[in-house]
Amino acid sequence: MLTVAEAQTRVSDLVAQAKKAGADAADGLYVCNESTAVSVRLGALEDVERSEGETIGLRLFVGRRSASVSSSDLSAEALATLVDRAVAMAKEAPEDAYAGLAPEDRLLRGDAPSVDGDDATGVPPEELRARALIAEEAARAVSGVTNSEGASASHGRTIIALATSHGFTGGYATSGHGCSASVIAGEGGAMQRDYAHRSARHLADLEGAEAIGRRAGERTVARLNPAKLPSGAMPILFDPRVGASLLGHLAGAITGSSIARKTSFLLDALETEVFARGITIVDDPLRARGLGSKPFDGEGLPTARRALIADGVLTGWLLDSASARQLGLQPTGNAQRGVGGPPGAGTTNLYMEAGSLSPAELMKDVKRGLYVTELIGQGVNPVTGDYSRGAAGFMIEDGEIGAAVAEITIAGNLKDMFRAVVPADDLKFERATDVPTIRIDGMTVAGA
């Protein structure tokens, strides 16, 4: 694994080679990942995985024609061949009026801000094994758990470097630590499974393995003996671990490519009320130790905190340079990319701000409703916003969580659902996309 400085030099040299070979413009991206993961099951070691790989990608332009190539061989000979192949490919590619590097005057200049994403802490396999064993033991200790799908613990580190031919060079490192457990309760056809998982950039921020395992066991046992839920329209509360998917649908609908192609259900929603007044949804790429934090985007533009929804109003799109040109706008610092192709646009640390009511207060007036803890399938139409997904969770009866329910379908339209969202006050930053418990009235539930 190269250091950040060495990686920056490597991509800068590759971009310079591309220019010498006839490219009018180019950028290069280096990514190196190393990781170790240890899995256990029923108290015994099941697997140890160790991987390390580095890849370098080159995108170059000959006029309005472009090509992207990548290689895991970083030798001088391989990179020289890579450049020649990319130039030849670009000359044969079709012209694209919107292709090109990011605007030079918008590039990040000076030192990149720190997002404190790397704790530089190595974790030996024996420590990962011990953590996984603790998690599984805690899960299996919960009364009612009958079997285990296993537990795991992992550690990894990533180096990223980006260089462009018009003046940007930058790089950074991130670390990652994770722990999970998945167990089974019940017997035969009545068996249920659930899991718990946590990730963190710094080991010091990772939740304890015993707590993770215990939560996996408790979640699983709570799902036993699911009852039948009558069909009808009713209030639905989404647990934070599944409610975050609603923000994923929002992000997909406001990316520049969706708007440029006119394939978004929010196509005409800019600067209108998409959510109720009081709702704020933020993308914050500079949050210290955030799972999605980064000091610059995939094109070398500075990143910044943005309220995508401010007091219910959609404030703007997520734009990389190509989609921005197509829409006659400026890129927003949301470009994302891999080594093998052009950038797209996306979010980093996306979250909905908390409301003022506790989850208990949010469901207090619900006579009959549904608390969703699992969503199944991908039944969402990004063009119309029609939403229909399998679900499991718990009944809400007279303001209290009741019996488990399964094999149900919830349906609505995302436009109506967004307008009806009411957030609770229990927001926690645990994922790259976070929401508090949220309530949506008026959705249709198809049960027994």
TrEMBL record:
* Gene Ontology molecular functions: metallopeptidase activity
Where does the record place the Metalloprotease TldD/E central domain? Answer: 121-224
Q: Which family does it belong to?
A: Belongs to the peptidase U62 family.
Could you tell me what this protein is called?
A: TldD/PmbA family protein
Q: What residue stretches are annotated with the Metalloprotease TldD/E C-terminal domain? A: 231-447
Residues forming the Metalloprotease TldD/E N-terminal domain are 33-90
Species source reads: Sphingomonas chungangi
Any GO BP annotation = proteolysis
Example GO CC term: the record gives: cytosol
